[in-house]
Amino acid sequence: MLFEFPTEELTVPGLRHFRRRVTPEMQTELLETIDRSPWQNELRRRVQQYGYRYDYRRKGLDVEARIGPLPDWSLELLDRFRREGLTDSTFNQLIINEYTPGQGISFHVDCRPCFDDTIFSISLGSPCILTMRQVSSNATKDILLEPGDVLSMSGEARYDWQHGIAARKTDRTQGRVIKRGRRVSLTFRRVLDN
């Protein structure tokens, strides 16, 4: 069962943040399911990839190198989010990243020639601050991603803003210090057919 919370429209056009859409019980179940599959250690963090393999060294993918379908559990989750109006996109690629305290990801825009307009991400486990940075001005917007939050980026948020997570063990927001634990993100994309 998903919580019912209003959508917050942020000041970054094309960025939608759905708060606490995955219950703690569902998060536990998802993390157990994810952990039953093998993790790859090709980066400073552990990763699982489904659909198509993204090559981090080349910063691209080969659409001919399909690695299989998305897991059934992920398709069921996407169907639920579609029914609830969180997305109307169809995805064929999933990258699962594990972040432990002190790990992050540098500012980036997801591969433009590789993926369609919508990037759809689910945050499980620990809270953290995701920072959006406008490419043209370097203006930033911090977003507190809490366990069970869903983020959708399209349009300007997808192409004109970078996103990243600072490599640190704590985050500060609204006068609070939040200690990071294990965080797992599920990021869904649609591979372009080039």
Quick structural overview:
It contains three helices and 14 strands. The protein is mainly beta and 194 residues long.
Task: Please describe what this structure looks like.
The strands form three sheets. Strands 1-2-10-7-14-5-3-4 form an eight-stranded antiparallel beta sheet. A four-stranded antiparallel beta sheet has the order 6-11-8-9. Strands 12-13 form a two-stranded antiparallel sheet. With 194 residues, the chain is mainly beta. The chain has one domain: Sandwich (Jelly Rolls). The longest helix is centred in the N-terminal third of the chain and has 12 residues. The N terminus is likely disordered. The chain contains three helices and 14 strands.
CATH architecture identity = Sandwich
Give the structural class: mainly beta
Query: What is the CA-CA span between the terminal residues?
Result: 38 Å
Query: Major sheet, described briefly?
Result: 8 strands, antiparallel
What would you call the shape? globular
The proportion of residues in beta strands is 35-45%
Contiguous low-pLDDT stretches (5 residues minimum) are: 1-10
Whole-number average pLDDT? 92
**Could you tell me the number of beta strands?**
14
Enter the CATH topology name.
Answer: Jelly Rolls
| CATH C-level label | Mainly Beta
Order of helices and strands: EEHEEHEEEEEEHEEEE
Radius of gyration: 16 Å
